[in-house]
Amino acid sequence: MAGPLSYSSYRTYQECPLRWKFLYVDRRPEAPKGYFTFGRVIHAVLEELVRPLVEPAARRYGGQGQTTLDAWKGGPPAGPRAPPSLEEMLAAYDRNWSSEGYGSPDEEARYRTLGRELLVRFHEHLVRVPPHPVAVEEHLEAEWEGIPIHGYIDRIDRVDSGGLEIVDYKTSRELAPDEARSSDQLALYQVLVERNYHEPVHGLTLLHLRSLRPVRALPRSPPALEPLHARLGEVADGIREQAYEPTPGRHCARCEFQSICPEFRTVAGPDGERLAALVDRFQRLREEEGRLEGELAETAASLHRAAEELGVHRVPGSRTVAVRRREIAWQYTLDAVRPLLESSGAAARLAGEGPEEVRKFLRDPKVPAAVRRKVAETGSRRVRWYWELAPPENGGS
Which one, of 227, 166, 152, 168, lies nearest residue 201 by Cα? Predict the structure, then answer.
């Protein structure tokens, strides 16, 4: 596998394995998009704004013992400080701003105004109700039951209960009320924090930056995390097997790799003409196939009716012989004999209720004959007739 899985890597492969290959194997650059640029800028400024408040927590290190982040990184800090002033924050915003990916100067201007407004509100809230972060933009790695994972977590706070709260910033327009509870991203971050910190995770939060409204959820229990682990395993297996088939869908409209994707790539010139001719021929043959299938079924039915009427199973033609064959299938309805199966103790010898399992049961000498007879009586036989072609017995002419 090409390194540990992040949430974005996992989601990309789930959406389209071929796009994952373009990004993570071929290392093709993504087309810049204004909303991605905007999110990166806001996150960078929030990191500068909140980092002075960090009070490092005990981390697991090397699989044994514990240490503080201060000692682990080479020395104790001076202690939490005040966040940058509003003016310093806005200067950081101007310094980090990027024009990359916006469709027009007007779009860039709207985003820049929006960013300034939400940062000002965030700064006011931060001064009024300061959080207790133990880490910001923290890169964590872990192995989750055989699957290497990693991620960058916007913020990890210590809460009044003594545990840790994972906070992920969202610059999107809206958040659904249950989005934190259903978020695979927060669940993956929970696993990363649990494997890197001694303190337990007590909460998962998506912080909607446009409204400063937190959408919270309790941490997932181990059983509740199992489906995500299974999905990550499927992605890891697909990557290991180099399964990079495209999966077209609505997401294709925003994909920058359509020109090299076999689902959308077009071929011009002589090769395109050759392909077009093959498609036209395929279409004609498929139409002919449909017509012939209907004619074949109608002829077989007429032959069957004539054979039934005349009482024959072998019908010679001028060059071959049509042989009437029979296929028999049995179906069993066991509801009426289930009490008998249970009371006789024979139910344990019935491997399943499919026709093959029941037929095997009916041949089992360890099952009382009376029980087998009752089960057999629940069966109904379905006969299907069909025709095969054989050479004439005299070898033909």
Answer: 166
Q: Are 332 and 355 in contact (CB under 8 A)?
A: yes
| Beta carbons within 10 angstroms of residue 174's beta carbon | 10
Residue 74 reports pLDDT greater than 50: no
* Eight-class DSSP state of 253: G
- Model confidence at 67, pLDDT cuts 50, 70, 90, reads very low
| Residue 291 in tokens | 């017509």
Distance CA 249, CA 337 (A): 50
264-312 residue pLDDT tens: 888 889 999 999 999 999 999 999 999 999 999 999 999 999 999 999 9
pTM of the model: 0.71
> What is the C-alpha separation between 344 and 334, in angstroms, rounded?
14
Return the bridge partners of 139, or none.
152
Place of tokens 């209960």: 161
Angle between helices 184-194 and 222-240 (to 10 degrees): 100
Taking the C-alpha atoms of residue 385 and residue 376, their distance in angstroms, rounded to an integer, is: 23
Which residue's structure tokens are 């960078």? Answer: 44
